[in-house]
Amino acid sequence: MDLGNINPVLLVASLMISATPILLAAIGEMVVEKSGVLNLGVEGMMITGAVIGFIVAINTGSPLLGFVIAAVAGAALSLSFGVLTQIFLSNQVATGLGLTLVGLGLSSLLGKPYEGQKTATLPKLDIPILGDLPVVGRMLFSHDIMVYVSLCLILAVWAFLKFTRAGLILRAVGESHDSAHALGYKVVRVRLLAIMFGGACAGLGGAYLSLVRVPQWTEGMTAGAGWIALAIVVFASWRAGRVLIGAYLFGGISVLQLNLQAAGMTWGVQYLSMSPYLITILVLVFISSNRSRSSHDAPANLGQTFHATR
Amino acid sequence: MIRRTLLATAAAGLTLAFGAPAIAQDTTKACFVYVGPIGDGGWTYQHHQGALALKEEYGDKVEIAYQESVPEGADAERVITQMALSGCNIIFTTSFGYMDPTNNVAAKFPDVKFEHATGYKREHPNVSTYNARFYEGRAVVGHIAGKMTQTNKIGYIGSFPIPEVIMGINSYYHHAKLANPEVELVVTWAYTWFDPAKEADAARAMLDQGVDVITAHTDSTAPLAEIAKEGGSAWGFGQASDMAAFTTNDDGTPGPRIASIIDEWSPYYIKRVGALMDGTYEQIDSWAGMPEGEVVIGTMNDAIPDDVKAEAQAMIDAITAGEYHPFTGPMNKQDGSAWLAEGETADDGTLLGMDFYVEGITGDIPN
């Protein structure tokens, strides 16, 4: 074993790239859940974003346009979930699972002609001054634009929920939709907007997979990333900052264990791979066993159907 | 899709029962269970190509059906049962993890033939196993890797620590070492057959640590896509399928795929279904390789110097002619104990149960 082979600079750089898809999907899902809706279709929206982003990038030669259209596609797909659950009051869990199945099937259908093709990928940004710094420059300031977009998104969501009136309304809808309704807030409209935001973020996350991280389209390429994003939201106990920590932890551990293996360590690697899941379970046990920490808990109306006449 | 086929076949079955039973003998239904999507561009894609070749060969006499992305384990048993119920005459289960489900279902359907790829359990007379000698291909790419590496560090992305993969690692390393005594092997385990992002991460981790030639034992093309980001300073091989899309870089220079190991299943599928149709079918344990055309090395591209190409071709010819066995002594086990004496070749039993590295590989095989 030679741990000296692991270059911490490259390790951090590759974990940031590795974590970006789940980070994008998780922050979107967090906003959805904050509004009281449980959308289990993240995987389906991600893979739809992946295939649409790829198709657009191939046909237009512009990966950035691919990201934009992928976000639109994710939002459009999530809107079908929104209409079903918010207007026709279908069961959120079942509809969300259905959305995942639809997304997986639709993407493999749409993606068939694009298998094995190569696309232009996002260039690494050349940030003056910062990018030239020793160590930190290579580690933090040499990525493509989406890495920074995802970080800005975390900051924006945090600020939105904490400081704005609209954020307060969104949280109120998630905590008690009946009270919010009584106060005159449009519960369904707020939730539809949140769902579409979640879909757009998942679409971006998927497009990051197919356009940057593994620049190609392969059927089923998200391979469960959407479910990890859902786990991260729980792990983060519905807080934006912790979503960042959670996503980098999940991404970081998976990159770290591969690097440890490449450096010759074979013992305990499996345990390291499963540790994020174990930590999620421990966090769940911890937050649900401690009532006084109710602020860490899930939004009170999470997953509940709202109907104004009830 | 499967349900519809089931209904259709049930309806057909009813008609036949009251109508002309002889027609039932005219079409043979061959069914395939795939572990990944056909579009993986690798393992499952090649099996599907084999299935299509089968259809091509026999035309209307054969009907094919398949199910993609079937998880290994209990779900597989459900899918295989459903296929057996839907009138399949022969069912090919194409991943190691289907071993027990295949045997369990075979016990319940003695009239249906089952063919399990890469396994070793034949608990019932209607279960055959088939595999290909991929280690022959690994020997050739190992030789190329040993010659091509500039950093003297070559990599292998393992899926699971099973004999099949360990055999490949040993063959790859042994021949790289023969070609270049300085070579060092880095193995990373992905613990998955198909997860493009993780396969890419594994390639990235090795590239970051100075590995410059990587072969993968997973199913997607993601490792090659990751190697391509190095822009011509690192190389890889097509795995299971030719992966020809990666033969040239964006700037037109050759790479990152410099050769490939192609699993060619069509001869086997055509032979077995043919045997079933003409009544000569019997239970077998097939393990064919280059001589039978089941393991093929894809085009070597121009990144490989001509003399190395010639050496690789000579090795291919020798293996195909049966003159060279990739595991020929002298070879020692990792702990230094003697395994094969000078000129001795490994027997199939040892290879199929291989649970040790050969001398020179560092690190342990995980449990």
TrEMBL record, chain A:
**Keywords annotated in UniProt:** Cell membrane, Membrane, Transmembrane, Transmembrane helix
The answer on whether this UniProt entry bears the keyword Cell membrane reads yes
Provide the protein name. Answer: ABC transporter permease
Q: Which residues cross the membrane?
A: 6-25, 37-58, 64-84, 93-111, 145-161, 192-211, 217-236, 243-262, 268-287
Q: Where is the signal peptide?
A: none
Against InterPro entries, the record matches this protein to: ABC_transp_permease
The membrane-topology field of this record reads: Multi-pass membrane protein
**UniProt main location, coarse:** membrane
State one Pfam family annotation.
Answer: BPD_transp_2
Lineage, top-rank taxon, reads Bacteria
Report the subcellular localization: Cell membrane
From TrEMBL, chain B:
- Leader sequence range is 1-24
Q: Does the keyword Signal apply?
A: yes
From what superkingdom does this record's organism come? Answer: Bacteria
Q: Kindly name one Pfam family recorded for this protein.
A: Bmp
Which residue intervals define the domain ABC transporter substrate-binding protein PnrA-like in the entry? 28-308
Q: Which Gene3D superfamilies match?
A: 3.40.50.2300
Q: Determine if Cytoplasm is one of this entry's keywords.
A: no
Per UniProt, the keywords (alphabetical) are:
Signal
- InterPro entries per record: ABC-Purine-Binding, Peripla_BP_I, PnrA-like
Q: What is this protein called?
A: BMP family ABC transporter substrate-binding protein
